[in-house]
Amino acid sequence: xxxxxxxxxxxxxxxxxxxxxxxxxxxxxxxxxxxxxxxxxxxxxxxxxxxxxxxxxxxxxxxxxxxxxxxxxxxxxxxxxxxxxxxxxxxxxxxxxxxxxxxxxxxxxxxxxxxxxxxxxxxxxxxxxxxxxxxxxxxxxxxxxxxxxxxxxxxxxxxxxxxxxxxxxxxxxxxxxxxxxxxxxxxxxxxxxxxxxxxxxxxxxxxxxxxxxxxxxxxxxxxxxxxxxxxxxxxxxxxxxxxxxxxxxxxxxxxxxxxxxxxxxxxxxxxxxxxxxxxxxxxxxxxxxxxxxxxxxxxxxxxxxxxxxxxxxxxxxxxxxxxxxxxxxxxxxxxxxxxxxxxxxxxxxxxxxxxxxxxxxxxxxxxxxxxxxxxxxxxxxxxxxxxxxxxxxxxxxxxxxxxxxxxxxxxxxxxxxxxxxxxxxxxxxxxxxxxxxxxxxxxxxxxxxxxxxxxxxxxxxxxxxxxxxxxxxxxxxxxxxxxxxxxxxxxxxxxxxxxxxxxxxxxxxxxxxxxxxxxxxxxxxxxxxxxxxxxxxxxxxxxxxxxxxxxxxxxxxxxxxxxxxxxxxxxxxxxxxxxxxxxxxxxxxxxxxxxxxxxxxxxxxxx
Length: 607
What we know:
- It is a single chain.
- By secondary structure, this protein is α+β, with helices and mostly antiparallel strands.
- The protein has a domain at 290-486.
- The protein has 18 helices and 25 strands.
- The strands form three sheets. It has a 20-stranded antiparallel β-sheet, with helices on both faces.
- Helix 6 packs antiparallel against helix 7 and helix 10 (345-368) runs antiparallel to helix 11.
């Protein structure tokens, strides 16, 4: 049944299906996803589609005037006629992932407006419901399972263990706690929550090891991949799985909510993570906010288009994983230099040493147990932008030696050592590569990269006033006294428009044959033709430029310590929702009549 499978697919993606069996033997759901209502989700989709009213679906009819429909009208008709027959569109929908002795099972709870229509909808998807009692049905054919009607909800699952005759409440205390306010109104449009009510984090991590090995076994070496690159990719995968274990096995509860503000036209993400006591995650949270960042307190100017910071202490597992990955990066880099046909032996020797110097310093930095750095791109006096940043770095003076070797490795670049020294920081520079000079001049007003090397950190800048940017930042950092470190350990502010437009001006377009291939007919496993929209990188960039042109193109994200918990979230500005709506409009082409295309009103009128 497409209805159940699609919603369940969403649940599995969000919940990271293979990790569910971490959570012991408790039969209650450990992971749940709640949709506030079909109407709320439809309102979100409608908003995104109508943020660009210039788009329409045009069906060309031979000898007759073209038929024109709005993307939302097509999508709404599809949702109402295919997905929501018999479903109450005003009430909460819930999907649970349930751990059992046979593995992971799922249970879906749909509010019923009309039971006969709901049963008819099942039949339309090839599922045969056979009534056994007034509230109990056996399901067969396209889906094998059972349906129980509980408090006007159709609760569907594979067996009676998951959908019991008694004891299950679709709107239980957990739903009320995480999804509803005191007036029982939904708080989020989409809510994901994970609860570890029984067992210890240590036990769950033990169970996870077998799953981790199974997942890593699926990481295979590709035909065109070198041994070094494969080992690096596998190590990165292992690090990601270890971090997933931290956030799936160690929390007592994790709650992630998404809400689209239909008045402000923004998308809002909310995160709350409660560690299990005595878990590795709890120990890691205790270390947050204890030591100030070297770069804390630096001014962030108005008009910035990028600002990010990190001040993250590393535990032993993270240090071990990251050091291992850095060692593999070193080997991969050395192999790439060795196999390169762009450099002569003298250049290769220089690059070998650069890779070894910087990787050794980075490994020592990781062993120190903290990632501390910032990046900022803000307006400069010449009307361009200056990019600057800094990073705490063990043996930072090794950066000076690496820059000195650039002169030998790339004779075409102008290298200037020891330009000046400011507050113990020595500033060096080298010019950008020939193919990037014009791009750097365009955005930053200069084609030179500046590096300031201190005792325990290095600074960098690109821009006509790059030297002054480094000196000002060093002075401010030295003069700033942090009495109470910030609890925020990750932050990001990104204004996408200027970056997308800049990238678009200096990238080689795709082959026209690829760029113009918007749709491609494919054959599905059941033999039916399925037309899916294909969007090239060039088209994605054009859509992004168009979506961000009017501004409102800001993405923000942050995480901070709040007592013993981790909280945070982010926001998508209107332009990003407009971008998503444009892609959604392209998808609606597949739902419309054959021969329909997505066009702008101007393009349709011109034709």
